[in-house]
Specification:
The protein is mainly α and 64 residues long. 67% of the residues lie in helices and 0% in strands. The protein is built from one helix and no strands.
Length: 64
C-alpha cells in the first residue's frame, strides 16, 4: 500500500468517526427533547381537573 492510499484510508476513517459522533449527539438531543415533551404531557394529564361532579368518570358505558 502506498503512502497516498494510507492517507486516504486514515482520512476516510476519521470522517466516518466524526459523522458517527455527530449522529449520536443528535440522537441524544432528540431523546432529551422527547423525554421533556413526554414529561410535560404527563404533567398536563395529571393536572388538577376543574370543579367537576364527583360521579363523573366512575363508570364506563359499554352499550354505546
Amino acid at each position: 500500500m502506498d503512502v497516498m492510499g494510507i492517507a486516504k484510508l486514515a482520512t476516510s476513517m476519521t470522517e466516518t468517526s466524526t459523522r458517527q459522533d455527530v449522529a449520536i449527539a443528535v440522537l441524544k438531543k432528540a431523546q432529551d427533547l422527547q423525554g421533556s415533551s413526554a414529561t410535560q404531557l404527563l404533567e398536563a394529564a395529571t393536572a388538577s381537573t376543574p370543579n367537576l361532579p364527583s360521579h363523573l368518570g366512575n363508570t364506563i358505558n359499554t352499550t354505546a
